[in-house]
Amino acid sequence: MAQNYRNQYQYSREYYQSRTTKRTGYPRSTQSYTQTPLRKTQQPQRHNHIPNRIRRKKVTRKTTFSFKIFFANIILLSLLSLIGYFILPVGFNNITKPLFLGENNKEITFNAREILFPTLNYMSNDWYFGHKYLLGANIKNPKMSTFFTSKKMTELENSLTNLMKQYPSIKPAIYVWDYDTGNYVDINGSKIYASASIIKIPILIQLFKKIESGQIDLFDKMELTDYYKASGSGNMQYYKTGSMYTLDELARVMIQTSDNSATNMLIAKVGSMLSVNRAIRDWGLNDTYIENWLPDLEGTNYTTAKDLTTMLYNLDNPSFLSISSREYIIDYMSKVKNNRLIQAGLGKDALFVHKTGDIGKMLGDAGIVYMPNNKKYVVVILAERPYNSPQGVQFIQKASKIIYDYMLTAK
After folding, report:
1. Can you tell me the distance from the alpha carbon of 85 to that of 337, in angstroms, rounded to the nearest whole number?
2. What is the largest CA-CA distance in the chain?
3. Could you report how far apart the first and last alpha carbons of the chain are, in Å?
4. For the whole model, what pTM was predicted?
5. Angle CA 266–268–270, to nearest 5
6. Cα(50)–Cα(85) distance, rounded to whole angstroms?
7. Helices 154-166 and 390-409 sit at what angle, rounded to 10 degrees?
8. Please, is 225 exposed, middle or buried when counting C-beta atoms within 10 Å of its C-beta (0-12, 13-18, 19+)?
9. Could you give the CA distance from residue 169 to residue 384 in angstroms, rounded to a whole number?
10. Which long-range contacts (CB under 8 A, 24 or more apart) does 265-271 make?
């Protein structure tokens, strides 16, 4: 019985292994793998969830002849032919050759500097090897000294601000600087204003710098020509053409009567507007510029109240001007005929060394006040106003009186 039982067990085991091998190809037991070939009738099952691909029918479109497209193509080809035959050769000969092949064409001029620096034709302050340059101020080593500042005169500034509220049509710039203390008032001091005839201050300074360098002499003579004659202030425009004048005479009338013709002659004598602008940059000033001959009624020449304060401060600078130059400049500027602006607000015993300017829309005065109590201060007032408005004069006079009265009692 035991033998029969073992035979029956062996048969069941072999049967079970054959069944699992046919189904999966691998036996479930750890016995060796026995490959059982599939029956011929047995086919691999397909996955029913993958649908058969639907073949799209090819659609054949019938092409129809369009007269619109045909004529449009003809017109396009005609235009391209005209461009290729007439325009491209002209462009190649007149533009491509001069620019890239170096061939000259008198009708076309090309200047790369004018493209890269378009403002140099009308704004420059240096000339080097036939080219104009616009250089910045000499900040590292300026020829003029910078005045020291201590603290703001707040009380005086508030008084001037209240005065400004009474004249809303006047847009002023005011700078006041005390020599003794360094205290100051700065109201729009760095704002650029049209300079009018106040631009004659840097022209006068540059004249004496040229004299000190030995390039010209104060008593050299110049001929008055029609080229230099200018309208506006001054009487030299009515003088006889061909008359001769010394530089001393020209400088005197330029400052005292604000003669525009004399100013133009001195600009030419010191080397043109370009020379004056270059000197201004060498002095360390960046916001003063001469753009036009006098009279500059359009207001293209410009400056700031702070720049003018620096120039006036350096009139007493022995490292910048000689004693002789200073004496001449003080003499000219202490006898200015126009005493209707800042000087009208000063005391009778005060000495004022200054220069005025007026082009209708801008009115100004800048100078040094020598007080009877031995104090002195720089004061610059520039005022934009409605054209020839008398309120501009009134504002400057009242502002001058406020400043003078304050400085009389200031410690």
Report:
1. 74
2. 162
3. 141
4. 0.70
5. 70
6. 64
7. 160
8. middle
9. 8
10. 265/222, 265/224, 265/228, 266/203, 266/204, 266/207, 267/203, 267/293, 268/228, 269/207, 269/210, 269/216, 269/220, 269/222, 270/203, 270/206, 270/207, 270/210, 270/216, 271/210
List Cα–Cα distances, 367 to 5, 66, 194, 328, 355, in angstroms.
138, 87, 17, 15, 6
DSSP secondary structure code for residue 289 in this structure: B
pLDDT in tens, 267-305: 999 998 999 999 999 999 999 999 999 999 999 999 999
Token pair for 398: 């009242």
Task: Decide if pLDDT at 225 tops 90.
Answer: yes
Query: Does residue 380 surpass a pLDDT of 80?
Result: yes
CB atoms within 10 A of CB 199: 27
Cα separation, 199 vs 288, whole angstroms: 8
Torsion sign over Cα 250, 252, 253, 258: positive
Instruction: Enter the tokens of residue 305.
Output: 């109240």
Task: Give dist(CA 258, CA 337) in Å, integer.
Answer: 9
Which residue is listed with tokens 């034709």? Answer: 121
Q: What is the pLDDT of residues 7-54, one digit of tens each?
A: 555 555 555 555 555 444 544 544 444 455 555 555 555 555 555 555
> What does the pLDDT look like over 68-84, one tens digit per residue?
788 888 888 888 887 77
For the cut 90, the answer to whether the pLDDT of residue 242 exceeds it is yes
Q: Cα separation of 380 and 105, whole Å?
A: 55
Q: Is 285 exposed, middle or buried (0-12, 13-18, 19+ CB in 10 A)?
A: buried
Report whether 353 contacts 346 (CB < 8 A): no
Q: Domain-by-domain residue ranges, the chain?
A: 154-409
Write the CATH number of the domain with boundaries 154-409: 3.40.710.10
Q: Which residues of 335-370 are buried (b: 16+ CB within 10 A; e: fewer)?
A: ebebeebbbbbbeeebebbbbbbbbebbbbbbbbbb
User: Alpha-carbon distance 355 to 335, whole Å?
Assistant: 10
